[in-house]
Model the fold of this input.
Amino acid sequence: MNIRVFYSSLSFKQKFGVVLFTIPCLFTFLAPILVSGSPHDQSLMNALQAPSAQHWFGTDHLGRDMWLRLSSALQVSLGIALISTLIATALGTFLGVLSAQYPKTADKLLNLTANLFLAVPGLLFILLFATIAPGQLWPLFLGVALIASIEMYRVVRAQSMIIANKDAIFASKLLGFNAWYLLRRHYFPELRPIILRLAAFTIATTVLSVASLGFINVGVKPPRAELGLMMIELMPYYYEAPWVILQPIVALFILVLGLNLMIGKKK
Done:
């Protein structure tokens, strides 16, 4: 589908959500280009400086540049969210359609496995993975992707069960078309809107989950920047330098709000 046609078909709320989501994404990649330096460089003599020509967003309690810190934090949050969502979408969609195609065999086994995973709250499950290798990112990728794939699988499975019982599916099978043709011609066109909305919701949930883990000092470890970790580090200085603690909060708010507005229905 043409991007311009797709964008014009969105509602005003969804368009506004796309704009909001684009702002932190552009900032993430353009900020290191516009300002040189490292987000980890410390200068205690310049601690908690207000925004200036030298430090556009000011500095934190260790004198680190907040412009670069915020960009690095968004890179971590968006990187984990996007990669985990891609993995979860591919895995969940494949397993959901597989369950619909083989309801007597694969569906029973996959449904049982999904129910076993859902017995543990999602955030707690991610927390367990994060404690395996503290400070490493791969447990977060793995934990988030597994939980998100279960949610994706359940939604895709429910819709695929309806599609599998349509006359067009039976006709295509009688004509000898393979599974790839069925997926491309029948399943994917009907599943695509649901998958896109669920993917946007998964990205928003993942960003919040990673920030929540950082807020309790689990997951991403210093000196790496992350939105939740930045909040807990800067919390003691909210009265002395309120502009510093507001930056990761506002960035998280814009990011999640944009994604949630994108989930709404089209015109």
Remarks:
- Residues 81-267 form a domain with the MetI-like fold fold (CATH 1.10.3720.10).
- Residues 124 and 130 are 10 Å apart (CA to CA).
- DSSP finds ten helices and no strands in the chain.
- The longest helix spans residues 179-215.
